[in-house]
């Protein structure tokens, strides 16, 4: 669900009247006080609020080698915000991964010690010997690229929702800056209160 906020909200009629006008398909209400100038790009207010995807939990040391099936699994072995974790997320294209062997294509920004650092980490975390090989081409997009692509696709999907599209069309300069999920009322009602536990 996209939550929408507009620039110069103090100049607009109450939110319930705005929503009613949009649902009824009426003309966009004029701001009180003769109208305000269109917001400049630097002063545009957020249209939607939200939170980023939750961070993947770090796997414990001694993780079974067979449980490492994706690059995300390998990243989860690293300490949060460690240099190795950042490089695996932003500077590595995964080419192949199987128990005891991983093939990667580092980006030009990756440090030269990346393969050795990764091999050392995998051996320490699993207790098994690993072979890390470097490919010159191929591989999946980096995890950071995948996350950005998913975010862009989600923004585009939200922008096509009729209610959001109506707001964006009627208020030039409004933009979606974040999207978040909300708990449906029936799901929230079914969840027990902490006081009842």
Provide tags for this entry.
7 helices, alpha+beta, GMP Synthetase, Chain A, domain 3, 35% helix, elongated, 197 residues, 3-stranded mixed β-sheet, 2 domains
Descriptive report:
With 197 residues, the chain is of the alpha+beta class. The protein has two domains: 9-51 and 145-196, no CATH class; 65-140, GMP Synthetase, Chain A, domain 3. 35% of the residues lie in helices and 9% in strands. The chain is built from seven helices and three strands. A three-stranded mixed sheet has the order 1-2-3. The relative contact order is 0.16.
Helix content: 25-40%
Q: Give the tally of structural domains.
A: 2
How many individual helices?
7
Broad shape = elongated
Briefly summarize what is shown.
With 197 residues, the protein is α+β, with helices and mostly antiparallel strands. The protein is 35% helix and 9% strand.
Secondary structure layout:
Elements: H1 15-24, H2 71-75, H3 83-90, E1 92-98, E2 101-106, H4 114-126, E3 131-134, H5 143-159, H6 162-170, H7 185-190
Parallel strand pairs: 2-3
Antiparallel strand pairs: 1-2
């Amino acid at each position: 669900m996209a939550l929408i906020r507009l620039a110069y909200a103090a100049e607009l009629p109450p939110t319930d009247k705005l929503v009613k006008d949009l649902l009824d398909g009426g003309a966009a209400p004029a701001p009180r006080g003769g109208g305000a100038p269109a917001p400049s790009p630097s002063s545009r207010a957020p249209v939607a609020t939200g939170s980023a995807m939750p961070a993947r939990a770090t796997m414990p040391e001694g993780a079974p080698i067979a449980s490492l099936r994706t690059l995300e699994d390998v990243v989860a072995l690293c300490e949060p915000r460690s240099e190795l974790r950042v490089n695996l997320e932003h500077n590595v294209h995964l080419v192949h991964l199987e128990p005891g062997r991983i093939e990667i294509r580092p980006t030009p920004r990756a440090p030269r010690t990346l393969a050795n650092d990764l091999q050392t980490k995998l051996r320490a975390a699993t207790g098994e010997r690993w072979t890390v090989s470097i490919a010159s081409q191929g591989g999946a997009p980096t995890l950071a690229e995948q996350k950005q692509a998913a975010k862009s696709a989600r923004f585009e999907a939200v922008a096509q929702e009729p209610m959001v599209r109506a707001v964006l069309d009627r208020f030039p300069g409004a933009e979606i800056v974040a999207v978040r999920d909300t708990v449906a009322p029936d799901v929230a009602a079914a969840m027990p209160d902490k006081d009842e536990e």
